[in-house]
Amino acid sequence: MKYFVFLMIFACNIFAFDINFKNFSSDFEQKVQSNNSSLNYKGNFIITQNKAFWNYTKPNKKQIYINNKEVVIIEPELEQAIYTQLQNLPNLQAIFKNAKLISHENYEAKYENIIYNIKLENGSLNSISYKDELGNLVSIYFYNQKFDQNINDNIFIPKIPSHFDIIH
Asked: For the segment 6-21, what is each residue's pLDDT rounded down to a tens digit?
C-alpha cells in the first residue's frame, strides 16, 4: 500500500515548485523489486494542484481519488471503498529542490536517508527510482504525458457502487 501512496504523493507534488500547470496526466508503470520477487503496476493518472485521480489497471483494478489530504481508494475485486487521510507526506518539494545534476538529464536527491534518482528525457520527466526503507527498489516510469488538457472535474469524484463496503 505504501508504494501506491508514495506514487500518489509523488505525482501530486512533483511539479508543485517550478512548473505551472492546470492539470497533468500520464500513463505509468511502477516496478517494485525485492530480493526474490518483483511486482509491476500499470495505469494512468490525472492531477491538478490539489486533486488527483489514479486508475490502476494491472495487476488489479483500483481507483484512487485524492482531494487535498482526503483519499478514497476503490477496490472493485474486494467490493470496498476505503476513506483515509494522507499523513506524513514526504517533502517532495525539498527533494526536487535538492536534486543535483549527475549526468545529462540525470539527477540525484537525498531526503531522509533515501536517495532518489530522477531521469528526464528531452526535458520531461521520464522516471524516478529509489530504494525504500525495506531495501526494495521502486521505479516509476511515465509515458504519454499531457499538460493542461480540457477535463471534466467529475473525474475527481469517486463513483462507489451501492453494494460496496465503506471503510473509514
From this structure: 554 454 444 433 445 7
